[in-house]
Amino acid sequence: MVGLGRLAGRGVILHLQHTGETLTMLTAPPAGWKKGTGSVGIATLGADMDWERLADARGVSTHIVLASGYGSPTSRKFGDFLTPSQATYGGTGNVVIHLVSAYVERAMLYDRVNIAAGRMTFLSDFSANPLYCNFMNAAFCGNPRAASDNTAHAAFPTASWAARIRVQLLEALILQSGVYFTQTRHQYALSQMRSGFKFNGATIDGEAIPLELAWAPRLGRGGKLPGHYKIGFVWDTASHDSLFEDREGKLIAVTGAPPRRFHGAWSAWFLIDQRLMRFPGHGPDAGITFLGVAYFNTPRSQLRQAQYSAGLVVLGAFSGRPLDSFAINIAYTRIATPLRRAQKRLRRIAANAGPADAWPKPVTGSPRSDAAIVEAFYQFHLMRGVSIAPDLQFYLYPDGRKSLGKQLMMGVKTHVEFI
Fold first, then answer.
1. Which residues lie in coiled coils (predicted)?
2. Which one of 42, 329, 406, 418 is CB 3.0 to 4.6 Å from 88, fit for a cystine?
């Protein structure tokens, strides 16, 4: 630890942590699915280097994050492929070391302007909130799940070539934008992103250009109720496949033809976290905080047209446990209206089809509709950098299919910061 302290004093900060998430099904699944338990985990190692201290390069720093993950989410055991029950699942390529991000950053004008460039994760910079990953479910952790519907938006633990600028307009007002080069067909493909160390630009197919305004007021008497409000928009220039329509406007399920392609897609969001009340004497951050999300996608090419979330985080409710927290969050996902209409149309066609009609594949299962997820946990802070959180999750219409009914799960999330 002495050595690490000396490194930090010279401008090198290392961090090593592990998150484990386990859930077991309490509700018997529909026929064809098997009741069970799923466990996932991820270890991350990172280094932040201050080159102003190391080499007198004013305002310059570099950042690198490596990861190694394992496991499979419980939600797959009862047929949900829409929203993983454990957010740390996936993306690390089943390799020992996966490069998440590596970039250089420069602070200027008394830290009012910040620019960064390199291998960067889009959804770590935009529509993000550090409070979200206290939750286990992917509907909440990191970003609203709808944010990663578009593969032009690189999600942790993947990255793309990018450049970002952040400007502090006022003390509590920050505007940021950037250019993130997209790889919509290869962002999560093992051939391109398995290790994260493949740096070529051969699969770049466009750019995502976001704009986000963040306001961080301090409300209440004495400004003791901090909040964060973000409103943002992104447009990308990549081409996106229709989920249901071929190039002639007919249903893919009927014709089996290649999908129709659309040029460009947009997303918009509004995020809020606002402390509503304090617990005096229980710690500087003790209190009740409201979380709210509204996220919207291009309905013609994205599965989720919208996601709405609302929740509460209660920190330090008990004076003897000032760092313990309790939280509950509810997410509602709306499946894209064009897809819902196409599903109804397909079923009408299938009902009138004769035995001689040729179908690329049979029409099975219930059509996708809306879905909802509720998560609640109590997080015990055991010691510095170590926490354990019993977790309860409820799915209504898993995978957006009413035929899958509902599912109740119980489990635990552990987090250990070694450095």
1. none
2. 42
Q: Is residue 4 part of a domain?
A: no
Question: 76-95 burial, b if ≥16 CB within 10 A, otherwise e?
Answer: bbbbbebbbbbbbbbbbbee
Measured CA to CA, the distance from residue 167 to residue 231 in angstroms comes to: 15
Q: How far is CA 254 from CA 168, 244, 245, 362, 367, in A?
A: 53, 10, 10, 9, 15
pTM: 0.92
Backbone angles phi, psi at 347, to 5 degrees: -70, -30
Report the distance separating Cα 401 and Cα 31, nearest Å: 14
Q: Which amino acid would we find at residue 204?
A: I
Tell how far CA 220 is from the center of its chain. 31
Q: Based on the structure, what is the number of domains in the chain?
A: 1
Tokens at residue 290, please? 């409201």
157 upstream amide cis, omega within 30 of 0: yes
In a domain, 1, yes or no: no
The answer as to whether 136 is a domain residue is yes
CATH code for the domain in which residue 107 is found: 2.40.160.180
Strand partners, 267: 234, 297
* 319-339 pLDDT tens trace: 999 999 999 999 999 999 888
Residue 2 lies in a domain: no
**CA distances in angstroms from 250 to 299, 303, 335, 346, 350, listed in the order given:** 17, 18, 20, 10, 14
Q: Are 66 and 96 in contact (CB under 8 A)?
A: no
Q: φ, ψ for residue 281 (rounded to 5)? A: 85, 0
Q: Which domain does 165 fall in, by range?
A: 11-354+363-417
- What is the pLDDT, as a whole number, of residue 118? 97
Instruction: Select from 303, 157, 297 the least CA-distant residue to 234.
Output: 297
- Count the neighbouring beta carbons within 10 Å of the beta carbon of residue 75: 27
Residue type, 334: R
Provide the β-strand partners of residue 118.
103, 162
Q: In this structure, is the dihedral angle defined by the CA atoms of residues 81, 87, 93 and 96, taken in order, positive or negative? A: negative
Q: Please name the amino acid found at residue 76.
A: R
